[in-house]
Design goal:
The protein is 10% helix and 63% strand. By secondary structure, the protein is mainly β. It has one domain: Porin (Beta Barrel), CATH 2.40.160.
Length: 160
């Protein structure tokens, strides 16, 4: 019986001092600049501890046959290191991840593995709403027409 009480007390203390998990979602628009500027749009959903965070992300860039620029669709899982709190309303981060991509130009298509690395900042606007600015370099598989692919975006980030 004393063991049960000790375990119950430890569980109650742990639950009382545990901090709620932090999560956020970002809807973004930007540009994929490789090999020509094309619009990119996507969504990222993540969660974080104090300085380490994780997110899953989907993005799509349309093709531009006239410029010889393929469409690029990515789905990645990423880890990020960020400051524990915003500094003067800005929370910088570095990010790296891996996933899959599909590149299509006309009848040519390649689907394979991708890695990415980059950085950015989440800038406080009002309440839980933030502006997220991000730059990323994607290293696409050996069958890709254009690698690395560079992407820059701005998005609305909701912290919850």
């Amino acid at each position: 019986m004393p063991r049960f009480r000790a375990i119950a007390a430890a569980l109650i203390v742990a639950l009382a001092i545990a901090s709620p998990s932090r999560a956020d979602a970002t809807a973004f628009l930007g540009a994929n600049t490789t090999p020509a500027n094309r619009a990119v749009r996507g969504l990222a959903i993540g969660t974080g501890l104090i300085i380490v965070g994780f997110e899953i992300e989907y993005s799509h860039t349309s093709e531009d046959p006239g410029a010889g620029a393929p469409s690029l669709t990515t789905g990645t899982g990423n880890a990020l290191l960020q400051t524990p709190t915003a500094i003067l309303g800005i929370q910088p981060y570095v990010i790296a991840g891996a996933g899959i991509y599909r590149e299509t130009l006309g009848s040519q298509q390649d689907t394979s593995f991708t890695t990415n690395i980059g950085g950015g900042a989440k800038i406080s606007l009002v309440g839980p709403l933030r502006l997220r600015l991000d730059y990323r370099v994607f290293k696409l598989g050996s069958g890709a027409l254009n690698s690395p692919a560079h992407r820059i975006y701005a998005g609305l980030n909701l912290k919850f």
